[in-house]
Amino acid sequence: GQYLVGVGSYDMTGPAAGTNMMGYANLFQNTAGIHFRLRARTFIVAESSNGTRFAFVNLDAGMASQLVTTKVLEKLKTRFGNLYTEENIAISGIHTHAGPGGYLQYLIYSITSLGFVQQSFDAIVSAIVQSIVQAHNNLKPGSIFIRKGDVENAGINRSPSAYLLNPAEERARYPENVDKEMTLLKFVDAASGKSIGAFNWYATHGTSMSRDNLLISGDNKGAAARFFEDWFSSKNESSSITTNIGKLMEKSKTIKATGGQQCGKTTSQGFKVRKNDGSLFVGAFCQSNVGDVTPNVLGAFCIDSGKPCDFNHSSCHGDDQLCIGRGPGYPDEILSTKIIGERQFQKAVDLFNSATDQLSGKIDYRHVYINFTNIEVVLDGTGNNTVKTCPAALGPGFAAGTTDGPGVFGFQQGDTEINKLWKQLRDVLKKPSQYQEECQKPKAVLLSSGEMFEPYAWAPAVLPIQILRLGKLIILSVPGEFTTMAGRRLREAVKDTLINNGNGEFDNDTHIVIAGLTNAYSQYIATFEEYAHQRYEAASTLYGPHTLPAYIQEFKKLAQAMAKGEKTTKGPSPPDLSSVQLSLSLNPTGDSPPAGKMFGDIKEDINQPKDGSFNKGDRPSATFWSANPRYDLLTEGTYAVVEMLQGKRWIPVYDDDDFSLYFKWSLENTSFHGLATIEWEVPTKAIPGVYRLRHFGSSKKAVNSTNHYFTGASSAFTVS
């Protein structure tokens, strides 16, 4: 093959108890278990002839982090030298709002997590590195196919009143106010002809799970990836087993709970259903220009009246907190997550099965760091009309939140004024300079984060932008959330620049995708027209009304350099703030079970059904005495297993990386001892048989003591 291709995947699930989730900025949304695990998924492509390559990493995380990128690059340099650098690695987040936070270095993004969370940060960095190493070790000659198609009813525009402010003639060029196109790459091993992975890009928010959810989840894109990978691995499997339910029920009655037992640090890895030996198919659902796209496709309604929210402000009687978007499974957010995930998964399967357009041509990349706080932007070709970007700032519409997750009472999307009380509170933190207030207009400056440096920088100034080329496919790595129209303008500008400067190397078949939330994070990028409305996306467009023109200008420079084969200068390096991070969150200090009990003992066993057998859709559950899951993340292991009796052996058939299995951790109300509840929603594909639930965990008696690992299983039960 013309290319070398390799894929990799690694568990990046962070602390599953007591850690604030990143996304909704809800101080009370702290992890309390796992719905399904988070992963870092990587593909690497290289030219066979000269080894020119790039790596693309897709994270089941809210967004990329500059500090994460910095530390990943340091570790890769130690292992690979200059083979993988900031120029040819892209690290992109899917934008789930249900992953542990505390891994970004700028203060504004770690307030609700009470500062930096080392355990969360380390899990992400390690997973990225391991997934890249795995993909690198898997490099072999292969082919890459591309296919595009529309995903139906997986996203709607959550700020349609802002979108309508874009010029009518521009809007008339597009059939929808969101981008429905999914672009998929299919990777095939040249020697065997077998597919090894597929990555796709499509824009919809990771907000099917609400701001009240406490279970770690990859949301709809993480779910789609799990469905896709399981679909591929199960295509040739048979699940027909002849059963006698009566005999099974009698057998299950004789099998009681095991009680708590000691085990080893890696024991749970042996109970994983999908063992990560580097041979597994890797399917990734990547993010794009997601800024104003919500998966809550039924629309936004007032929770008091049931009527649609105010169109311009997304509020109810002036109250933003009453306006909530509804997913297709409303009021069941997990069902909504499943449905939106399935809609992306099904389209990916269609594209995967029909992908015959083989990519060929050059692999290339360009990368630059830019200080976005003072870019001089030329708005016309003459150079006579120039404007500047501003230091970062947030407006009152940011505080209002969105229909996916309302913010603070007293604010509405579209606010361009701040009341006296909030101004006084703002000024206690930092009164914005007059220059800042003028520069950001019509945004009213609620928080001048770009002028705040105590105890360290609140917001980024220097950001990376990047272009990756794989034949006729161009990937634009952007460190934020472009709205639908902002993304369209960027894609169009880059394509025109490549065609006009490439001496025929680029044409109308050149395909541009935006990889959102990549390499760093700087919130939103709205169009100039949308900025005037100051809804959430505009109020969160940090660098003022000309943020998008600045991005377009700088990306055109990169595109021109790529088209002409010219190198680019690195630009100013972003800071490494790891040495000044504050952390106010408390680590667990030691756990012990109640007197006379062991960790892994049953507190509440399976509640056996009256007819003796569970049916598909039922939820058998068991609760175990357990310790805080932060003592060990059980990376590439599992806290929860469903075992099936096959002959005389118990075989793991589901674990905490499955959509149907829930691991929930809590403290007992009176004694404050730890409890782990395992709940299994019996899937429609479950084979009739005898099952039990197993729990794994780790404990410490004191902060500095050694870890003790334990397990325990419930009584058996029958599924018919």
TrEMBL record:
<keyword id="KW-0325">Glycoprotein</keyword>
<keyword id="KW-0732">Signal</keyword>
<dbReference type="Pfam" id="PF04734">
    <property type="entry name" value="Ceramidase_alk"/>
</dbReference>
<feature type="binding site">
    <location>
        <position position="481"/>
    </location>
    <ligand>
        <name>Zn(2+)</name>
    </ligand>
</feature>
<keyword id="KW-0746">Sphingolipid metabolism</keyword>
<dbReference type="Pfam" id="PF17048">
    <property type="entry name" value="Ceramidse_alk_C"/>
</dbReference>
<dbReference type="GO" id="GO:0005794">
    <property type="term" value="C:Golgi apparatus"/>
</dbReference>
<feature type="binding site">
    <location>
        <position position="95"/>
    </location>
    <ligand>
        <name>Zn(2+)</name>
    </ligand>
</feature>
<dbReference type="GO" id="GO:0005783">
    <property type="term" value="C:endoplasmic reticulum"/>
</dbReference>
<keyword id="KW-0479">Metal-binding</keyword>
<keyword id="KW-0862">Zinc</keyword>
<dbReference type="InterPro" id="IPR038445">
    <property type="entry name" value="NCDase_C_sf"/>
</dbReference>
<feature type="binding site">
    <location>
        <position position="205"/>
    </location>
    <ligand>
        <name>Zn(2+)</name>
    </ligand>
</feature>
<dbReference type="GO" id="GO:0042759">
    <property type="term" value="P:long-chain fatty acid biosynthetic process"/>
</dbReference>
<dbReference type="GO" id="GO:0016020">
    <property type="term" value="C:membrane"/>
</dbReference>
<keyword id="KW-0443">Lipid metabolism</keyword>
<keyword id="KW-0378">Hydrolase</keyword>
<comment type="similarity">
    <text>Belongs to the neutral ceramidase family.</text>
</comment>
<dbReference type="GO" id="GO:0017040">
    <property type="term" value="F:N-acylsphingosine amidohydrolase activity"/>
</dbReference>
<feature type="region of interest" description="Disordered">
    <location>
        <begin position="563"/>
        <end position="603"/>
    </location>
</feature>
<feature type="domain" description="Neutral/alkaline non-lysosomal ceramidase C-terminal">
    <location>
        <begin position="555"/>
        <end position="719"/>
    </location>
</feature>
<keyword id="KW-0333">Golgi apparatus</keyword>
<protein>
    <recommendedName>
        <fullName>Neutral ceramidase</fullName>
        <ecNumber>3.5.1.23</ecNumber>
    </recommendedName>
</protein>
<keyword id="KW-0964">Secreted</keyword>
<dbReference type="GO" id="GO:0034599">
    <property type="term" value="P:cellular response to oxidative stress"/>
</dbReference>
<dbReference type="GO" id="GO:0046512">
    <property type="term" value="P:sphingosine biosynthetic process"/>
</dbReference>
<dbReference type="InterPro" id="IPR031329">
    <property type="entry name" value="NEUT/ALK_ceramidase_N"/>
</dbReference>
<dbReference type="GO" id="GO:0046872">
    <property type="term" value="F:metal ion binding"/>
</dbReference>
<feature type="binding site">
    <location>
        <position position="524"/>
    </location>
    <ligand>
        <name>Zn(2+)</name>
    </ligand>
</feature>
<feature type="domain" description="Neutral/alkaline non-lysosomal ceramidase N-terminal">
    <location>
        <begin position="3"/>
        <end position="553"/>
    </location>
</feature>
<dbReference type="InterPro" id="IPR031331">
    <property type="entry name" value="NEUT/ALK_ceramidase_C"/>
</dbReference>
<dbReference type="GO" id="GO:0046514">
    <property type="term" value="P:ceramide catabolic process"/>
</dbReference>
<keyword id="KW-0256">Endoplasmic reticulum</keyword>
<dbReference type="GO" id="GO:0005576">
    <property type="term" value="C:extracellular region"/>
</dbReference>
<dbReference type="InterPro" id="IPR006823">
    <property type="entry name" value="Ceramidase_alk"/>
</dbReference>
<feature type="compositionally biased region" description="Polar residues">
    <location>
        <begin position="576"/>
        <end position="590"/>
    </location>
</feature>
